[in-house]
Amino acid sequence: MQAAFFDLDKTVIAKASLVAFGPSLHRAGYLSKWLVARALWAQFFFRRFGADAEKLRKFRETALRVAVGWEKDEIQRLVRATLAEVVEPIVYQEALELIGFHRAEGHRIYLVSASPSEIVEPLGEFLGIDEVIATKAKLDENGRYTGEVAFNSFGENKVTAIRQSAAIHDIDLDNSWAYSDSATDVPMLSAVGNPVVVNPDRELRRVAEARGWPIRIFRELAAMPTDAPSNKKRALGGAAMVTAAGAAGAFWRSGRR
């Protein structure tokens, strides 16, 4: 079996997912305006200059400290309740087309993200993804965040999780694909036979050019109906993606993988 592994932030969606849900968390009383503004500034900085492992570690630790004492079930409920409002305006059409292409080809589709599973898993369901690999936080006996990480879906840890799932599902990684925007995902991109760089930061562009990896720029945001229930939206989106699969397939069959 072949598979396609998609990073989430700035690859499938145009913003960092944690930042995208900031206003919803603020309205629900979880975040102050100052913290939302700080997250927006961090997104601008990372997008403009790229983010190395140390910057991302500090950002993640700050988010974990802020979340101490929050109830996991309540955060999941909030994410699901605001998913359509937050995510629909920032999904890349080009990403949907590629997901549609891989689905039409019978490939197993993954979201592989350093963002929290409480955000990535509902997004995966919304987009019809087969499996999600994401960061998991430690919880206390009452289901509240402790501020510690149970699994950090970052760097080489992504590769470890990908290989474990590949072994379970008999996935041929040498004939699979991976998509990402960040130099921190060079290990994931290197783990498959068909790495594709999307909207790369400066360091990843340098690596891609040196290794001859294809570079794609996603710009178009998907037009998804806002008045349809989520399951209908997924069906409509799936139909649109399959229709677009021919165009995406032409890219791959043109000879440059």
General description of the model:
The chain is an alpha/beta fold and 257 residues long. The chain has one domain: Rossmann fold (3-Layer(aba) Sandwich). The protein is built from eleven helices and seven strands. The protein has a seven-stranded mixed beta sheet with strand order 4-3-2-1-5-6-7. Strand 3 and strand 4 form a beta hairpin. Helix 5 crosses helix 7 and helix 6 packs across helix 11. The chain is globular. The C terminus is likely disordered.
Which keywords apply here?
single chain; 257 residues; alpha/beta; Rossmann fold; seven-stranded mixed beta sheet; 11 helices
Oligomeric composition of the shown chains: single chain
CATH homologous superfamily - what is it?
Answer: HAD superfamily/HAD-like
Measured as a percent range, the helix fraction is: 40-55%
The tally of beta strands, per DSSP, is: 7
Q: If you consult CATH, what is the topology?
A: Rossmann fold
Radius of gyration: 18 Å
The gross shape turns out to be: globular
How many discrete structural domains? 1
String of helices and strands: EHHHHHHEHEEHEHEHEH
Give the amount of beta strand, in percent.
Answer: 15-25%
Contiguous uncertain segments of 5+ residues: 31-46, 225-257
How many helices? The count is 11
- CATH architecture classification name: 3-Layer(aba) Sandwich
Secondary structural class: alpha/beta
How far the N terminus sits from the C terminus, by CA atoms, comes to: 18 Å
- The overall average pLDDT, rounded, is 76
User: Could you name the CATH class?
Assistant: Alpha Beta
Strand order of the largest sheet: 4-3-2-1-5-6-7
The main pleated sheet reads as: 7 strands, mixed
